[in-house]
Write the structure tokens for this entry.
Amino acid sequence: MCGIIGYIGPKKVVPILIEGLKKLEYRGYDSAGVALVDKGKIHVKRVKGKIKELEASLKKSPLAGSYGLGHTRWATHGRPSEENAHPHRDCSGRIVIVHNGIIENYLVLKRKLKDEGHTFTTETDTEVIAHLIEKHFKGSLENAVRAAIAVLEGAFAIAAISADDPDKIVAAKLGPPVVVGFGDDEYLLSSDINPILSHTQKVAFLDDGEMAILEPSGVTFTDFKGNAVKKKVETLAWNPMMIEKRGFKHFMLKEIFEQPEVVRDTLLGRTSLDSGKVLLDELGVKPQLLKKVRKAVLIACGTSYHAGLVGRYFFESLAKLPVDVEYGSEFRYRDIILDKETLVVVISQSGETADTLAALRASKGKCAAVLAVTNTVSSSIAREADGVLYTHAGPEIGVAATKTFTAQMTALALIALYVAQARGAVDKKASLAFIQEFQRIPHKMEKILGQAKTIEDLALHFVPFSHFLYLGRWVNFPVAMEGALKLKEISYIHAEAYPGGEMKHGPIALIDENMPTMAIIPEDRVYDKMLSNISEIKARLGYVLAVAHENDAQIRQRVDAVIPVPAAHPLLMPFLTVVPLQLFAYYIAAKRGADVDQPRNLAKSVTVE
Ligand code: M6R
């Protein structure tokens, strides 16, 4: 969590840091700050609250400087407050740092530094780093940073400046991401590429154990011992336009509407309508290896976990493989039993989620291969996996994942079919039928998006409610989970998801006129079962809304309101049923005046445990 930014170059520094922080704000937004070096002094401004508060404060009392750092915080150690906001200073105020991550041994270090005479002014773990750099500073900032980080335990992306070793920003990474941008005589560093894109598409990603030293003359890379490291400078395909709202009120709404394009782009060039084959040479995993696979384990967190749950049905139905789906945060603490016939797939939009990354590391070498599904090129997960399938969703700025969910499901379906073909579990006719159906999905999504106003009108009735139940079965049960997650994270309405058949085992006790139910009930193998589950709710005076096939006349007699969706291959229905649920949650949250793109307490990229 947290976002860090740094700039060194000829332009005015404050606007670049503020614009950059706004683009990083999704990573954390309880306090923010900047530090600028000006004529041998470092000036720091910090505020509690969002970047707009920092911006207003800088307008009132501007800061000058020729280079600097910025930070937007998601609190881990120390409550959100001005004092705990970054940047943090050493005793003299001549060394300043920003940090993303957690220093696990900070209490021990703090006690020792205090005994040595250092004075602490914050409750954060980060402040120890500033004092450690101070302790080791003998004229070279990079040497002092190296000595400081040698005693840190935990995870960190840090950037430091010193008034006594001027015109230099030193960054180091162990865990959370650091990207360096190469402009014309200007250099940036950031927690992700979004702030960099407005300046340059040329970037280098730090690996764990690496440092970058940014100076007006260029960037030097080293390892933590000071040995020179040669980095590849990549030119990104994403452009600045992709991170604008383009007329939509919120990024989330724009991203919901981008889904047909995202599914098309993620499918593009990866299937053949002649041979019926899935073309995934880019995975870098030999089909012979996949032929031997006897089991799949899908690992992820949050929305990506829900994509994994949908993925389970693709692997079972197409590849005929047994599948476990695991939370990254739980998997890493299990007695992990994997073997060389098990395929592990980790799923992460950001490619930086600490728990998913830890699960990847725990699996690597113990299974047939670890594949990654991610939206973020050169992210830690992408770099460490044995093979990667990128979701071509473009940058997702809304904290609530939407288009990356459908992109992840697309990628998982492709991998499942690829494995199925390698194993000979699916013939050409069935493959072709599936691919053809898949290619019709984006158009069907567009039809649903065309009904956005009707979904909005319906959603507005539920603005005052405090609880919601989501029901689905089979491949649509994970969609119910995702619908409930969307509602709770952006509108703060309590929502729970159950497989319809579980209602009678407990949750039905909750049903009354204050507990509406959203039922996902396309005409598939569990349609009749879901109808019975709905009847049980109606018999107890529960209000039921249904997401159902547009030609289903029966359902209209059985429920209070219907959101119609086109019919599709049953396994592909989640691509369609999830769209109304995303819109439903969005319209309720927007009407409640919630901060849809930056819900309270959340951050887009969870790079701490
Ligand atoms: O970047 P990741 O896909 O690994 O992130 C996983 C979760 O943190 C993420 O899906 C989170 O649950 C979102 N708030 C969902 O909207």
Remarks:
- The mean pLDDT is 93.
- The pocket of 5-amino-5-deoxy-1-O-phosphono-D-mannitol is lined by residues 301-304, 348-350, 353, 356, 399-401, 489, 602, 605-606 (CB under 6 Å).
